[in-house]
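Researcher: Go.
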Amino acid sequence: MILKVLAMDTGKCPRDANKMLFTLESEKLSNGVARVSLVLKCPVCNYRVVVERLEASRDKDGNILIRRFFTEPKPA
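Model: Structure:
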C-alpha cells in the first residue's frame, strides 16, 4: 500500500477535535482491481472517513473500467 499525506485544513476529528489530514491510499487487490481512496484521517486516534474511492479493472475484452464512488454526507 502506498500512503501519501497532504496537510490541509480539512476540519477537526469528531472524536478528539484534532486536525484531520487528507491522505491518498492505493492498493492492488488479488482479483486484479487497483483501488485508490481519498481519506480524511486523524493522526492521533486513526479515525478515518473515506471521501472518494476509484477502482480500475479490466473487462473480458481488455478494456479498462474505472468506477468512482463517493460517500454521502451524514446528516447533522
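Model: The first strand starts at residue 2 and ends at 6.
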